[in-house]
Amino acid sequence: MQFQIDNMTCGGCARSVTKAIHSVDPQAKVDIDLPQKRVTVESGVDRSAVASVLEDAGFSPRPAA
After folding, report:
1. Are 17 and 55 in contact (CB under 8 A)?
2. What pLDDT was estimated at residue 64?
3. What is the Cα Rg of the chain in Å?
4. What sections of the chain are H helices per DSSP?
5. What are the residue boundaries of the HMA domain, all occurrences included (predicted)?
6. pLDDT tens digits for 19-53?
7. Cβ contacts of residue 50 below 8 Å, gap of 6+?
8. DSSP state of 10
9. Given Cys at both, which of 19, 48, 59, 65 links 54, Cβ 3.0 to 4.6 Å?
């Protein structure tokens, strides 16, 4: 699954995003493209759960185009 997170602007944001995703799936593979503000997640957890923890962490995920 891919998310566009427009308010992810720095390495600290990227670490926060990764930490949030790992809070629901410690085994998730998280790939962050900071210049494109895009996150790719390989996880068995459903998309809405991942989006929810990202919102809780202060980010605004939307489906990546």
Report:
1. no
2. 86
3. 10
4. 11-24, 47-56
5. 1-62
6. 999 999 999 999 999 999 999 999 999 999 999 99
7. 1, 3, 21, 24, 25, 28, 41, 43, 61
8. S
9. 59
Instruction: Return d(Cα 39, Cα 19) in angstroms, integer.
Output: 13
Are 8 and 34 contacting, i.e. CB atoms less than 8 angstroms apart? yes
What pLDDT is attached to residue 43? 96
Q: Which two tokens stand for residue 38?
A: 């895009």
CA distances from 59 to 9, 20 (A): 11, 10
Question: Which has the closest alpha carbon to 44: 29, 61, 60, 55?
Answer: 29
User: What is the C-alpha separation between 12 and 8, in angstroms, rounded?
Assistant: 9
SS3 35: coil
If you search the block for the tokens 């629901």, which residue do you land on?
24
